[in-house]
Amino acid sequence: MKISLNWLKEYCNFSVSVNELAERMTMLGLEIESIEEPGKEIENVFVGKILDIQPHPQADKLVVCKTDIGKGEPLQIICGAKNMKVGDKVPTAIDGAILPGGFRITRRKMRGIESFGMMCSGAELKVEEDSEGLLILHPDAPLGEDIKKVLGLDDVIFEIEITPNRGDWASYIGLARELSAYYDIPITLPQIKFSEIEKTASSISSVTIDCPDFCPRYAGRVIQNVKIAPSPDWLARKLISAGQRPINNIVDITNFVLLETGHPLHAFDFDKLNENRIVVRLAKEGEQIRTLDGELRTLNTSQMVIADAIKPQALAGIMGGADSEVDDNTVNVFLESAYFDPVSIRRTARFHNLLTEAAQHFQRGADPEMVTWAIDRATSLIQELAGGKVLKGILDEYPKKIQRKNVKLRYERTKKRIGIEIDKDFQRTIILKLGFSVKEENEKEVDFIVPSWRHDVSLEEDLIEEIARFYGYDKIPNTLPKIRQSGAVFDTAFKKVNDIRTLLVHKGLTECYSWTFSNPEIMQQLNFPENYLNMVVLQNPLSKNLSTMRTSIIPDLLTTAQKNHLEDTISIFEIGPVFLPTEQNLLPDEPQKLGILLSGSANPRLWCYNDRKQFDFFDLKGIVEDILNELYIPYRVEKSDFPLFHPGQSMKITNQNEELGIVGKLNPKIAHELEINENTYISELNLNKILCVTPKKKIYKTISEFPSTSRDLAILVDRSLPVSEIFSSLKSVGEGMLQKIELFDVYTGEQVPHDKKSVALGFTFCSNEKTLTDNEIDSVMKEIISTLQKKFNAHIR
């Protein structure tokens, strides 16, 4: 927002340097983006009056002018512009003048005739972007006056950044309140003066609010017989200083009052309103309106409109409609001032991609009590500048009155929060200067009534922040915080999750971070089961493609793989929440999940690797098992039919019939559609469930001082039999002599029936008491074979 120092001083006439003011506004919380002095480079340019214009005898496109600047004899100036006439007042640069950019004016001959200066355009003075001729000044501009004063260029322009919670700062009066409180200078508000005729506004118009939750207050005035014309110089200059383009007196007045008060207004052509009345309502599904930018917009039932008796005439709080626009033929005006719900305005503005000045003000929260003051201020200016007749009475509908909040301040609480002693009288005085009033008080505390423009104040800490701001953050000494010593562990899961993260990084994986928003259409395209498609829907999404909260991390990992599809090796993981709907529309469950994706080559592209091994199912399975073993989590591996995965390479991890996670190869069809490597393997683990499992007890065994012996065995079993079941069946065999079982080969193919597979197992035998004999080992091997034959109908190969 651009702020003119001269304009600001009209409301709070402080006398401080520009640098001191910038420093103070910064310390009060206003971020100064830049400071400009628009007339700093301009020298010796004055208001001149054209006395005579004659053709140049040697040039058809030039004229010879006599221009009076009120100092000595009129100047002879050669000019190529065509838009001026005798009697016009124009900016006149004399010999030795300097224009913006350091351009110096000197006397010189042009086609044989000497020119003693230059008459300037708006572009040459940097008050207009483009100019087709000279800048014609108002006839009342004082002859010989410095042009910087006439055009308001003897000013300082602050460009400030307004924080979203302080919508009251986005106006001159709002900033004046802050500076008035700090410098202890009274704020000066403009006087409102206008006369009303006997005819009442209610006799020819009315306001109806059908959606009070969206529009708690709406006010209107009817002004007849206005004259549409260009705005006077003072008004145009103020709009230009704020970076706005003057349009006409009516529109410029509404923009001026918005800058002054922070409260948006809108002017309708009264005669273009069907039945000359206003209805504030929600749009009908599919209803359309052509807005002032020329766009035809289709509405839905969540969007508020300002309608007449038949159709919408404005997108409430955002932009007016073309059908009721004020133009050069407008005679009667309906002036609008309202308070709209910020959430409703934000949602509609984002839906239509319309971030207008009005929408930004309403989104931050307007002042419901400023509704009538702002409309009366605009009415006063319209009568002054457009000669309108104001009908008696204001059409002010306020069906849902907004109650002002009370916030209690305890003086001792201020000391605890800020860390220093601040005088009670100072605390009370500062809050009162900021527009708060006292409801009740005693020696220890005071209950304040929050002013209507301070939507950001709702807690005692908000009041303490105000006290700290005005006391001065720079005066608060730096102190180290007190550390509370405690043996308690506040989040036992945090260390375990961090251990998982460290383990994966040590294995060469890269951690990713993704938005927790998702697209339900992508979930369907990836063939996720129905329970994953029950998603939390956002009321106000960033975009249509991010309209829900994610129920799985897998789509985010696949998106990352897509974006990095040119990489030979992708090994990534993400730890984060997913969002699961709950009954009765309560807050969703947010379990932490771990997603892992491996794709492409398993070893790096180095000279020492002749063969680039591709990731396989067992690489990912091994990583998942390492995580579970690191946490001492007991688990079982079972076959899974998760639709996203390859039917033959998919498993789920369980504990006591509770699913902890899934592991599998991405379905080749989906990999082809996503244009990523077909050798892509994905796992998703529910960390909440895993960390709730009672871990296995750590058992420490003495290392045997006797030698171990190994035996191998190949068996034929059913193709569908999980090897984990074989391992489980042999745990109790051998009375402690069987130390380890390893799977070193699985074969299907020739010489093996199609419904069977060959499994090769390695057994390690050892005793802590003696060296085992061949007979003892043979006895255990017979027990192993017998167990496998009885339980699995195994055949020895």
Can you describe this structure?
The chain is of the alpha+beta class and 797 residues long. The chain has 6 domains: 2-37 and 156-183, Phenylalanyl-tRNA Synthetase, Chain B, domain 1, CATH 3.30.56.10; 43-150, Nucleic acid-binding proteins (OB fold (Dihydrolipoamide Acetyltransferase, E2P)); 196-397, Phenylalanyl-trna Synthetase, Chain B, domain 3 (Phenylalanyl-tRNA Synthetase, Chain B, domain 3); 406-475, 2-Layer Sandwich (Phenylalanyl-tRNA Synthetase, Chain B, domain 1); 493-692, BirA Bifunctional Protein, domain 2 (2-Layer Sandwich); 709-796, Ferrodoxin-fold anticodon-binding domain (Alpha-Beta Plaits), CATH 3.30.70. Helices cover 25% and strands 28% of the residues. The protein has 20 helices and 40 strands. The strands form 10 sheets. It has a 7-stranded mixed β-sheet, with helices on both faces. A hairpin with a 5-residue loop joins strand 17 (288-290) and strand 18. Helix 5 packs across helix 6, helix 6 (249-261) packs antiparallel against helix 9 (370-386) and helix 11 crosses helix 12 (460-471). It is elongated and about 130 Å long.
